[in-house]
Amino acid sequence: MIDTLISNKEQIVNDSKQFSLFSWSAQASLNPIAIERAEGVYLYDYDGNKIIDFSSGLISVNIGHGDQRVTAAVVDQMQKVSFVTPTCTTEIRAKLAKKLAEICPGDLNKAFFTLCGTSSVDNAIKLARLYSGRHKIIGRYRAFHGGSIGGMSVGGDPRKLANDSQQMTNAVLLDDPYYFFGMKNLDDETKLNLSLEYVERVIHFEGKTNIAAFIFEGESGSSGCLHYPKGYLKGVKALCEKYGILFIADEVMSGFCRTGKWFGFENHGIIPDMVCMAKGLTSSYLPLGCLMVSDKIAEKFDNTPMMIGLTYNAHPVAMAAALAVINIYESDNLLENTKKMSAYLESKIEEMRSKHPSMGAFRNTGLLGCLDVLKNKTTGELIAPYNATGDDLKITNIIGAKLRELGLYTFVRWGYIFIAPPLIINEEQIDEGLAIISEALSIADEHLVY
């Protein structure tokens, strides 16, 4: 039996590499993990290894793997109707849209269903331009809004650089407030005021009547879980209101209980005009995105055609998965578990510091977290710089390989180890994952410069 599984694994890996392409990767050097099944916070490969998933897939499998309540809901929906043209409607569409309106604050009451996160972002851009009659979209350099041309253009993640020649026009990017030259030794209030003055200057430089929207992540994700200074998002939202600019919150990664709130923006006391959703919406069991829109924006299209659309708008089967997942967030009290496990995780990370001098800052909001791994203890330099390539990633790659060898899957990028497990995780499983990370950090300790 074991020989058969190993043979199957080799065939799966070989055929996958021969007949498919993998994202963001040089294909020849890939060594993908062949997963046979997944349950709870664990993945199981064809070699019989049990792998703890410490980044919820791509920070998306919020309810954990293999919850058969979702399977049952999907099967039930498929037995009724699997697809209708988007000009028709279904019971599941009505239920899910109503439920999303209930959990969203303010007047975010209208759901436009998409296929994924980046298609939610693309349609938010289109809708902002249609609604406002303006054309510019302002985002951040250290943000990621998906792999489409629109999504890549309004963020600055370096994965877009190979596609620079194809970028969408009229996208403007801001530096983050914590990187401004000369602000390091200022007090927090002064830094906040100067940061917001910079944002307002950009608004004037770009033409206040040309800017349709700002797009910000509710909480930073793949750029390193970088925290907004207290009051920053509220200040940006106030500037948007001052100049009649829409505010789009990208909650694809930070949404659905991940940060201890339904949405990351709720940690900042604001209500956006639009919210982009995906990932945790279905816990990635099926592809589905959603763009929640305020009543104010929706009213614009009561008697004017809303010229956005896609074939899989309001796909019944994916929506059945989404409603089942939202019910699980509520019935299993995952908001409370996220808060509880977040506090426990923070305490255990602090305990590890006495053992590992290579540990830098740990930034988290709920169970969306990221650990800095240091190269230089004195300067705070990370083991790999932002947008590192080639030899600069040598130690990072060794650490990542060690984590995989020891049975932990997570997102390791540049000088960061991401810690964002499924929201169902318990204390024992956090201890298990951190013990593996601790062992891998010994590699960084050996290379640390003082």
Quantity of strands, as a count = 15
Order of helices and strands: HEEEHHHEHEHEHEHEEEHHHEEHEEEH
**Residue windows where pLDDT falls under 50 for at least 5 positions:** none
Level of helix content? 25-40%
The Rg value, from CA coordinates, equals: 22 Å
- Name the beta content range: 15-25%
Number of DSSP helical runs:
13
Mean pLDDT across the residues is 95
Strand order of the largest sheet: 4-10-9-8-7-5-6
> What's the story with the biggest beta sheet?
7 strands, mixed
> What is the overall silhouette?
globular
Structural summary, described in words:
The protein has helices spanning 2-19, 56-59, 68-80, 91-103, 117-132, 149-153, 188-206, 232-243, 295-299, 316-331, 334-352, 394-405, 427-447, and strands spanning 35-39, 42-45, 50-53, 108-114, 136-140, 171-174, 211-217, 246-250, 274-277, 289-294, 359-365, 368-373, 408-409, 412-413, 416-419. The chain contains 13 helices and 15 strands. The chain has a seven-stranded mixed β-sheet with strand order 4-10-9-8-7-5-6, with helices on both faces. A four-stranded mixed β-sheet has the order 1-2-3-13. It has a four-stranded antiparallel β-sheet with strand order 11-12-15-14, covered by helices on one side. Helix 6 links the parallel strand 5 and strand 6. Helix content is 38%, strand content 16%. The protein starts with a helix and ends with a helix. The model has no long low-confidence stretch (mean pLDDT 95). It has 450 residues and is α/β, with parallel strands linked by helices. GO terms for molecular function: transaminase activity. It comes from Flavobacterium myungsuense. Belongs to the class-III pyridoxal-phosphate-dependent aminotransferase family. This is Aminotransferase class III-fold pyridoxal phosphate-dependent enzyme. Keywords: Aminotransferase, Pyridoxal phosphate, Transferase.
